[in-house]
Amino acid sequence: MRSVLFIRHAKSSWDNAAQHDFERPLNERGKKDAPEMARRLLEKNVPHDLLITSPAKRARKTSDIFAAAYGLPSDKVIQKAELYLPSPDVFFDVIEQLPDHARHVALFSHNPGITHAVNQLTNEIRIDNVPTCGVFAIQTDISSWLKFRHAPRRFWFFDYPKYI
Fold first, then answer.
1. Residue 87 host element (H or E)
2. Helix 57-70 to helix 28-43 angle, to the nearest 10 degrees?
């Protein structure tokens, strides 16, 4: 069994309108939501072997918070430039390049690509919008990540900070 979590970065700050999008940090709500979502995943016993993140500041910080909550060392957090504002196909490309020793992976990225991507994963559920720090999880029975694109995938769960 392998699992992939698609995690949208936590809420970012718009305090400085002149700041380049890539450099926007988390705002106060984002700094609160990211550890809360990591805690929820830990409570559900959701494993993580490897975190792959967009290099944008808000995504990196969100993945750093999850890594700290899980006690993952820095070599288990990998930045992939292609996850910054990606098209849905980019997610499949990134997943197919994953090392097979990693069985449970989280991808940290951005909208609208992440919402479009999760809606291509399974026919079981449709998401109108993955909210900030939202987590969409799927499972698959494949022996290698190279088989991910065409493999059957099962919806596992969807959670986000304001989910009641």
1. none
2. 40
Instruction: Give the CA radius of gyration of the chain.
Output: 15
Q: Quick check: pTM over 0.70?
A: yes
**pLDDT tens track for 124-155:** 899 999 999 999 999 999 999 999 999 999 99
Whose tokens are 């990693």? That residue is: 102
The angle subtended at Cα 121 by Cα 24 and Cα 21, nearest 5°, is 10
Distances (CA, A) of 61 to 35, 85, 91, 121: 11, 16, 20, 26
Dist. CA 52–CA 42, nearest whole Å: 18
Residue 64 near residue 116 (C-beta atoms within 8 A)? no
User: Nearest CA to 121 among 87, 159, 150?
Assistant: 150
Domains, in order of start, for the chain: 2-159 (3.40.50.1240)
Please give the Cα distance from 34 to 11 (Å, whole number): 9
Instruction: Quote the DSSP letter at residue 137.
Output: E
